[in-house]
């Protein structure tokens, strides 16, 4: 089926009269087919990763080497560093044979990424690591600086990709999907003005020369002014590479004047030829989306694991780098972090993360994620422990250190376990009592431990604050700004009204702004018939709604109502599926959280969470890697990462919809819908059947998403504060501190890590500008260092001429900036 859809328009070309119509005056020998052998190897699809490594890759690579021996000038391009590394480990002799062909220039590594990933749902830092790990592998193993990006089968391309590739030293890009009709070669300009030269191979990325070379070139010539075309030929998907029939056609074409000229090609050389011959190519300034919108929701557990893995590893890097730079631990846990990142990056391969593989792939993927999580948590926990061991934690009671991984001050709830019986107080680092309340649902890891939640107030930017659990004669009493009942929740920011029979939110009154945020019942789970005619995992086939879940009645009950939070649980059912939602308001937080647990059993049905906002909007904002994009509010399914925003056309008011693990959304006028779950039936007939958990949140705000800081709110939901109960001991660090501060709200510090390479001395900081404005920013660091601007591959560029504890940087609109800082000896 996948081959059918990929080669559909080749059939059209074969059925058309060769060089008919306007092309009749074209002489075939006026055109040159620059031939490059290729095997698009799906790392997993209708088979598992193990089969790819042990069978597909070995057969493909050994077969290609055999054909190179038969036709010595033949050239072959292969992407995906993960596949090369797997062969290096499992078949060293085969890898050495490949390396010999790379040295002679006939086997050409391309892509520069660890895999050919999804390019909409992965975070910006993941794309940076795809390139970091991919390009450094090719440099280390083959001595090559790969300059040709290669994602011909990925399901769409985000608008920051031109800048991401350009800043990794990749000026050229081979792609296939989401491009404007009739496009073969064009300049693609992304956010901030970065440009790369793009090429769409005629006939697709794995063609049969025997069956189609003449018609492929003829069809391309109808819409393109080019005379030279790069043609990718060979067997793909399950591997294979150049065929015997391909080689036979190449031999005969040299003598056949009814065929285009042929020449063996190297992709980078072809792009340089293209630049020289066609400086007037069109410029495309839009995202190259959407493609296969069903993939934004299918196989939701893998998507949740991807989000968890991205957040965990970035946090582990930050605190591990700070622990090493501060002298709190002796070494950076590079082995654990590298191996964990490689797993997360490999699982971002488009057919895996996009949910379009068979069920056994996702069993295998889940086990890989477990290893990545174990490595990431080990790196994070030990680094937090070593930092905490340097605190002076002496004093009354049990110390709890609350860490903040984001570069701005935060006030948010944290949950801790109380290691003693009886009454107690929670005291902050300045000696003030902190309100707390018991967590519904009982004990923690041990039956002897109680769990409580409290609001950690003013936790410093990328730093920590210490609290103490102190035994007391009686439990303290706190005045509450939070309340709950079966028909309402309220805190100092919002008053929420619930339908007591259905559990729907009928009113969200924004106290601070004096207005109602909703135009109708919200958080309504809408069951919609979803029956695509083909390609169930990939496509949507949405029809009329089947039901509004809860319409026939739901169970609504108050779980908690205290000084820290109010929680109402809504339980409902649809056919054989069960839904349980905990609707929560916290003190000090202008955000409504909805934690959803579901037992999903349906096929050919999609669940949408519906939010009709009382705003007039003809567009909405969607987060993409390292930025966001404005799209029309036309009801089309579209991808986003941590948030979308629907605001008044005049920018006076809006609501952001945040999430911790979902990627599919649609907005029509002022109504936003989040795609919760679906029941695809091919290629996995049991896709998504079972238990799931997700959290999404509403963030009403004055002004635009830029003024309201929606970018930060999305990060906060996905990166909760990190409480750690520690021992009492002397130390050199105070009870609270900030390691790093960024003084501009529109600049996100997305990464802090040690420079790649076990002998490296530098720290890497990555930032990006979110709101499209030129910005000067000061970054306060705890150490003295020398700063150099670097690329995404961490190769240093121009020195910044700065030394000291404050780094002064200037950003262009939407700019991504990587800085390398080397600490001086104190």
Describe how the helices and strands are arranged.
Blueprint: H1 2-6, H2 8-15, E1 32-38, H3 49-70, E2 76-78, H4 81-90, H5 92-104, E3 107-109, H6 124-142, E4 148-151, H7 161-166, E5 172-175, E6 185-189, E7 195-199, H8 209-223, E8 228-233, H9 244-253, E9 261-264, H10 267-277, E10 283-284, H11 300-325, H12 334-346, H13 350-353, H14 359-388, E11 398-404, E12 410-418, E13 424-427, E14 436-438, E15 450-459, E16 463-471, E17 483-485, E18 488-490, E19 494-498, E20 505-510, E21 515-516, E22 524-530, E23 542-548, E24 555-561, E25 565-574, E26 577-586, E27 592-600, E28 605-612, E29 619-624, E30 627-632, E31 638-639, E32 643-647, E33 653-659, E34 664-668, E35 671-678, E36 690-702, H15 705-708, H16 710-718, E37 722-725, E38 736-738, E39 741-742, E40 747-754, E41 762-769, E42 775-790, E43 796-811, E44 816-823
Parallel strand pairs: 1-2, 1-8, 1-9, 2-3, 4-5, 5-7, 6-10
Antiparallel strand pairs: 6-7, 11-16, 11-37, 12-15, 13-16, 14-15, 16-38, 17-18, 18-19, 19-20, 20-21, 22-23, 22-28, 24-25, 25-26, 26-27, 27-36, 28-35, 29-30, 29-32, 31-34, 32-33, 33-36, 34-35, 39-42, 40-41, 41-44, 42-43, 42-44
């Amino acid at each position: 089926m996948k081959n059918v859809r990929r080669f559909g328009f080749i059939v059209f070309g074969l059925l058309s009269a060769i060089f008919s119509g306007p092309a009749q005056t074209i002489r075939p020998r006026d055109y040159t087919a620059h031939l490059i052998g290729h095997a698009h190897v799906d790392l997993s699809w209708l088979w598992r990763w193990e089969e790819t490594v042990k069978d597909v890759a070995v057969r493909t690579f050994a077969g290609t080497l055999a054909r190179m021996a038969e036709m010595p000038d033949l050239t072959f391009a292969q992407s995906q560093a993960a596949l090369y590394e797997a062969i290096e480990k499992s078949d060293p002799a085969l890898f050495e044979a490949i390396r010999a062909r790379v040295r002679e220039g006939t086997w050409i590594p391309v892509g520069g990424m660890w895999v050919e990933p999804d390019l909409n749902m992965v975070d910006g830092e993941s794309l940076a690591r795809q390139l970091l790990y991919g390009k450094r592998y090719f440099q280390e193993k083959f001595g090559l600086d790969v300059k040709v990006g290669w994602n011909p089968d990925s399901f769409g391309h985000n608008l920051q990709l031109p800048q991401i590739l350009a800043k990794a030293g990749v000026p050229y890009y081979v792609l296939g999907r989401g491009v404007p009709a009739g496009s073969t070669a064009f300049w693609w300009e992304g956010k901030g003005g970065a440009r790369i030269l793009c090429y769409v191979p005629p006939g697709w990325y794995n063609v049969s020369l025997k069956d189609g070379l003449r018609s492929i070139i003829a069809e391309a010539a109808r819409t393109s002014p080019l005379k030279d075309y790069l043609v990718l030929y060979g067997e793909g998907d399950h591997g294979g590479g150049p065929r015997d029939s391909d080689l036979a056609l190449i031999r005969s074409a040299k003598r056949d004047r009814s065929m285009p000229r042929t020449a063996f090609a190297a992709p980078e050389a072809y792009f340089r030829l293209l630049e020289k011959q066609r400086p007037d190519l069109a410029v495309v300034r839009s995202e190259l989306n959407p493609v296969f919108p069903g993939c934004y929701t299918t196989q939701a557990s893998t998507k949740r694991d991807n989000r968890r893995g991205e957040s965990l590893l970035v946090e582990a890097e930050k605190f591990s780098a700070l622990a090493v730079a501060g002298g709190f631990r002796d070494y950076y846990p590079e082995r654990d972090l590298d191996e964990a990142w490689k797993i997360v990056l490999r699982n971002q391969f488009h057919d895996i993360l996009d949910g379009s593989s068979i069920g056994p792939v996702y069993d295998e993927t889940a086990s890989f994620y477990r290893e990545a999580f174990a490595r990431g948590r080990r790196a994070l926990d030990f680094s937090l422990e070593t930092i905490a061991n340097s605190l002076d934690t002496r004093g009354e009671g049990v110390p709890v250190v609350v860490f903040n991984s984001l570069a701005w001050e935060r006030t948010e709830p944290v949950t801790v376990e109380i290691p003693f019986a009886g009454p107690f107080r929670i005291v902050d680092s300045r000696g003030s009592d902190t309100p707390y309340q018991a967590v519904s649902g009982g004990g923690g890891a041990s039956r002897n431990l109680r769990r409580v939640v409290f609001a950690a107030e003013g936790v410093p930017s990328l730093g920590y604050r210490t609290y103490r659990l102190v035994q007391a004669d009686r439990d303290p009493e706190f005045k509450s700004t939070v309340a709950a009942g079966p028909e309402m929740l309220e805190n100092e920011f919002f008053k929420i009204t619930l339908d007591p029979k259905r559990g729907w939110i009928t009113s969200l009154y924004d106290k601070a702004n004096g207005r109602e945020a909703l135009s109708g019942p919200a958080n309504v789970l809408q069951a919609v018939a979803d029956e695509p005619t083909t390609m169930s995992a990939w496509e949507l086939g949405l029809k009329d709604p089947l039901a509004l879940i809860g319409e026939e009645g739901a169970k609504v009950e108050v779980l908690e109502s205290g000084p820290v939070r109010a929680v109402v649980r809504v339980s409902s059912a649809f056919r054989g599926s069960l839904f349980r939602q905990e609707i929560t308001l916290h003190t000090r937080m202008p955000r409504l959280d909805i934690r959803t647990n579901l037992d999903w059993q349906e096929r050919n049905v999609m669940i949408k969470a519906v939010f009709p906002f009382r705003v007039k909007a003809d567009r909405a904002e969607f987060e993409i890697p390292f930025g966001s994009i404005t799209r029309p509010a036309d009801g089309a399914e579209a991808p986003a990462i941590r948030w979308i925003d629907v605001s008044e056309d005049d920018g006076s008011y809006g609501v952001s919809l945040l999430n911790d693990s979902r990627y599919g959304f649609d907005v029509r006028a002022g109504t936003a819908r989040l795609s919760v779950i679906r029941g695809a039936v091919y290629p996995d007939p049991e896709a998504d059947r079972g238990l799931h958990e997700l959290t999404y949140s509403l963030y009403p705000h004055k002004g635009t998403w830029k003024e309201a800081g929606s970018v930060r709110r999305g990060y906060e939901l996905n990166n909760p504060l990190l409480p750690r109960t520690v021992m009492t001991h002397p130390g050199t660090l105070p009870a609270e501190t900030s390691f790093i501060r960024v003084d501009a709200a529109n600049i996100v510090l997305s990464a802090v890590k040690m420079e790649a390479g076990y002998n490296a001395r530098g720290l890497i900081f990555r930032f990006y500008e979110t709101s499209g404005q030129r910005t000067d920013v000061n970054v306060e660091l705890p150490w003295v260092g020398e700063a150099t601007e670097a690329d995404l591959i961490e190769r240093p560029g121009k020195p910044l001429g700065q030394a000291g504890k404050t780094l002064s940087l200037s950003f262009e609109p939407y700019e991504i900036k990587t800085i390398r800082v080397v600490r001086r000896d104190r």
